[in-house]
Design goal:
194 residues; alpha+beta; Immunoglobulin-like; 2 domains; 5-stranded mixed beta sheet; 4-stranded antiparallel beta sheet; 2 helices; 19% helix; elongated
């Protein structure tokens, strides 16, 4: 083997370098995507709301999530009849802590914080299910096995109209667009022919 042929054997051909560069670009793009996803996960997630009661017969109480392009919940819409109350739970990897609720117009829809009489697991992490806070101190208001009272809220439709309710949990917010519809008209009493 001559010196000329051995040096060409060790040096990559130009097309091999282009392939390696395109693969490295793909690797960097995937690493950036993983980093963005990890940062989004660490930034916390907004609370999830779930309806826990039903409307009486002939009335409306329907909570629907408003989804974004990627299927994530952006906000909620609640259609509720005048005079109907709807209970909802708030979850953020466990029961929502330090939740504050606020209605833009309490004359249309009144909102109250509630504790629903059930226990639920308190979330994820090294102290999940231990009855202790993240710093290892006892978590008051929790059962010895780490379950806590379900956090919730109740919305009451007061008069027909549209308003917004905001649920604040730490630095995260959920917005509920509320549409209060009038109750169905009363039908006149039926007459019976004899």
């Amino acid at each position: 083997m001559s010196a000329a042929s051995s040096s060409s054997y060790l040096r990559p051909e130009p097309h091999d370098r282009d392939d390696a560069a395109s693969w490295m670009g793909l690797v960097y793009a995937l690493a950036a995507l993983v980093l963005v996803a990890a940062l989004a996960g660490l930034s916390g997630c907004a609370p999830t709301l779930v309806a826990q009661s039903a409307a009486p017969p002939g009335r409306t109480a329907r909570l629907d999530p408003i989804k974004g392009f990627w299927g994530n919940t952006l906000s909620y819409r609640l259609d509720i009849s005048q005079g109907v109350a709807l209970a909802m739970t708030c979850d953020q990897g466990g029961p929502c802590r330090r939740m504050v609720v606020q209605s833009d117009d309490p004359a249309i829809a009144e909102v109250k914080q509630a504790s629903i009489g059930a226990l639920t697991p308190t979330g994820f992490g090294p102290y999940a299910g231990t009855g202790h806070a993240l710093d290892g101190s006892p978590a008051y208001g929790r059962a010895a096995d780490g379950r806590a009272t379900v956090a919730g809220l109740v919305v009451v439709g007061k008069q027909p109209g549209t308003t917004r309710v905001r649920v604040f949990v730490g630095d995260q917010t959920r917005e509920i667009k509320i549409i209060v519809v009038p109750p169905p008209p009363q039908s006149p009493p039926a007459t019976v022919a004899r």
